[in-house]
Amino acid sequence: NAGVTQTPKFQVLKTGQSMTLQCAQDMNHEYMSWYRQDPGMGLRLIHYSVGAGITDQGEVPNGYNVSRSTTEDFPLRLLSAAPSQTSVYFCASSNLAGPETQYFGPGTRLLVL
Amino acid sequence: AQTVTQSQPEMSVQEAETVTLSCTYDTSESDYYLFWYKQPPSRQMILVIRQEAYKQQNATENRFSVNFQKAAKSFSLKISDSQLGDAAMYFCAYRSPLGGANSKLTFGKGITLSVRP
According to the model, what pLDDT value does residue A75 have? Predict the structure, then answer.
């Protein structure tokens, strides 16, 4: 049971570098999302997608891009990393409607120096 | 926009005792879903329990139960017979019933629960 997978688990970047956080799910979920978790802030929504080819911004989208070319994959791109993007990033997926549980990946810890 | 408030940043409980974690929320919707997630030191987000607002009966899952007060917009989590493995951060979350682009979870800031042996 793979569920939601994320890579890498941990990454160190220098300011200005770019990288892509990978997320994949094998549950055929339409809805996928990215959250960031910061101390004392809970989890905040960065971007989300309701299906292949459809993405939209969440609460804190600045500095991040996403795309959804397949149902399974939802990568998050940092174009030019900043220290303010130091955080733990979670990918989640669920069906679109009803009280559907969102399933979370194990998280990616990102440190931007 | 919906908001979720967890006003207690930390709580502590003696092993085998009962503890209640508080959560309040604000919404103009009449139907919605509420969740409690557990995040142990491994950082994995684990669903503990969920409540559908149209259901009057409080949800229970083994040692975990909720006290859902719709009029007061309160959704507290009770952990009975606390165990050392219950030590974690707990998040309360809200989800709209509208689905689609409204499928996001709105989280509280979380509460850190420690369990004393």
Answer: 98
